[in-house]
Amino acid sequence: MEIRPNNPMQPEILANAPRCGAKTRSGAPCRSPAVGGAARCRMHGGKGSGAPRGNRNAWKHGANSAEVAAIARYLRK
Fold first, then answer.
1. Local structure of residue 64 (DSSP, 8 states)
2. Number of helices (H) and strands (E), helices first, in the chain?
3. Domain assignment present for 40
4. Distance CA 50, CA 64 (A)
5. At 29, phi and psi to the nearest 5?
6. CA distances (Å), 16 to each of 2, 33, 63, 65, in order?
7. Contacts with 42 (C-beta within 8 Å, 6 or more apart), sequence order
């Protein structure tokens, strides 16, 4: 793959970036730049969003928080 140095649509940093290691359906290597810190481009799974870390979906309103549980224990005494 020849990279032309004065292509305004492809900045030099992208032109010199490592390429994705995946193969396309035709069997040719993917020509997209790999995502930083990965060997694949964004289309071939370089960085998937996935689920957020931790259980953030369980925190809705604080009714079951440790603070509310401590207040309930205090009131029961």
1. T
2. 2, 0
3. yes
4. 26
5. -70, 145
6. 11, 9, 53, 51
7. 32, 35
Query: What would the pLDDT profile of 42-67 be if each residue is shown by its tens digit?
Result: 888 877 666 767 777 666 777 778 88
Domain count, the chain: 1
Q: How far apart are CA 35 and CA 41, in angstroms?
A: 5
Residue 22 in any domain: the answer is yes
Q: Is the pLDDT of residue 3 over 60?
A: no
d(CA 28, CA 18): 16
Q: Which residues of 23-35 are buried (b: 16+ CB within 10 A; e: fewer)?
A: eeeeeeebebbbb
